[in-house]
Amino acid sequence: MTTTEAPSRANTLGSISSNSTMHDGRIDTHHHILPPAYAAWLDRHGIRDGDRPLPEWSVQGALDLMDDNGIVASILSVSTPGVHLGDGGEARRMARTVNEFTAGIVSRCPDRFGHFATLPLPDIDAALEEVAYAFDCLDADGIVLLGNVGGAYLGDVSLDPLMAELDRRRATILVHPCALPGAEVPGLPAYAADFLLDTTRAAINLARSGCLERFPNLKIILSHAGGFLPFAAQRLAASCSVDGDSEGGIARLKRFYFDTALSSSSYALPSLLSFAEPTHITFGSDWPFATRERSAFYRQVLDDYPLTEAQRLAIGRGNAERLLPRLATALADGGRLNG
Predict the structure, then answer these.
(1) How many domains does the chain have?
(2) Which CATH number is 128's domain given?
(3) DSSP class of residue 31?
(4) How far does Cα 299 stand from its chain's mean position?
(5) 288 lies in which domain range?
(6) Cα–Cα distance for residue pair 100/131, rounded to 1 Å
(7) How many C-beta atoms surround the C-beta of residue 104 within 10 A?
(8) Cis before 122? omega within 30
(9) How far is residue 298's CA from residue 264's CA, in Å, rounded to a whole number?
(10) Does 12 reside within a domain?
(11) For residue 261, which of 159, 187, 284, 326 is within the disulfide window of CB 3.0 to 4.6 Å?
């Protein structure tokens, strides 16, 4: 982002009040944004949050949630359904609108926010163009990808040109679930169970397709502790290896990163912590799709869980700083300026 571009976008945000003296807090890698133009667009298309209306979102609301939960910085990303609702031109325009709006917030508070840019998939050429713009002009911290696009799961060879470019850029990718390519169970909203399966399917396909070997520089964060992956890893492992060898499949699956969004319960954490490498777990709130109360509940359960100090520091901040070098630098600079 150029210095002449940032103020014009940032000035549209109004006054922002934040606690900029918090230098020891968490980094939230699963923190959503609903820019006003995007929210209005979804509303016109009749998009809801499953069986609920879309949540309210504001910059100040995000900062309040962060300050209440000891979150020093959050990486903003768009949730499902992304920006492609059937019209490719509309998707390209909305991706650019969302990414520029989000970059404006980051330019105003670079040590409180980062962003994972959204792409107008399944249009590969348009996605590659947006990747270049997001990284070269908007200083994106990474990319958010849905688990499947029109039924084609991550790992599909049709996505290889995109993955190759992201690999060249050593990109961090947040994999976010979306609706399964099939009808929902009546009365069961997609976020209740289908999202977990979607993430698990994406992880399996990324592993079994050899994508992780073809593009070894990618750093891939799986939402919601990887869906069912940690719990079912042994069962899934043979399907993820080259020759049906479970040990090789486990090794592939352990290359993923996992966030704790809606997954730091006393039931889920033992499975996640027994499977994932300690350096491969990041904190996530899932706000605003998770309410302030729900976000605080999961944060408190994580706080109360018997972790070592090294584990707590790694999950809360250290692992994210390694994945997000721009943000780590901004936090360090902010600490020197304000400390």
Answers:
(1) 1
(2) 3.20.20.140
(3) E
(4) 17
(5) 25-338
(6) 13
(7) 23
(8) yes
(9) 6
(10) no
(11) 284
- Residue 187, classified by CB atoms within 10 Å of its CB into exposed (0-12), middle (13-18) or buried (19+), is exposed
Distance between CA atoms of residues 60 and 14, nearest Å: 10
The answer as to whether 15 is a domain residue is no
What is the largest distance, in Å, between two alpha-carbon atoms of the chain? Answer: 57
CB crowding 43-55: b at 16 or more within 10 Å, else e: eeeeeebbeeebb
The H or E element containing residue 145 is: strand 142-146
Residues forming beta bridges with residue 146, ordered by sequence position: 176
Using CA atoms, how far apart are residues 320 and 190, in angstroms rounded to an integer?
28
Amino acid identity at 264:
S
Enumerate the β-bridge partners of residue 114: 75
Prediction pTM value: 0.91
Per-residue pLDDT in tens (0 to 9) along the chain, 339 residues:
433 333 333 333 444 444 433 335 999 999 999 999 999 999 999 998 877 889 999 999 999 999 999 999 999 999 999 999 999 999 999 999 999 999 999 999 999 999 999 999 999 999 999 999 999 999 999 999 999 999 999 999 999 999 999 999 999 999 999 999 988 899 998 989 999 999 999 999 999 999 999 999 999 999 999 999 999 999 999 999 888 889 999 999 999 999 999 999 999 999 999 999 999 999 999 999 999 999 999 999 999 999 999 999 999 999 999 999 999 999 998 754 443
Does any domain span residue 322?
A: yes
- From the centroid of its chain, how far is CA 201? 17
Asked if residue 272 lies in contact with residue 230, where contact means CB atoms within 8 angstroms, the answer is: yes
Q: Write down how long the chain is.
A: 339
Tokens matching residue 265:
């319960």
How far, CA to CA in Å, does 191 sit from each of 140, 194, 335? Answer: 27, 6, 38
Integer angstrom CA distances of residue 224 from 22, 145, 200, 213, 328: 26, 14, 10, 24, 23
Nearest to 306 by CA among 244, 249, 264, 253: 264
Report d(CA 189, CA 79) in Å as an integer. 15
Q: Which residues contact 136 (CB under 8 A, 6 or more apart)?
A: none
Residue 14 lies in a domain: no
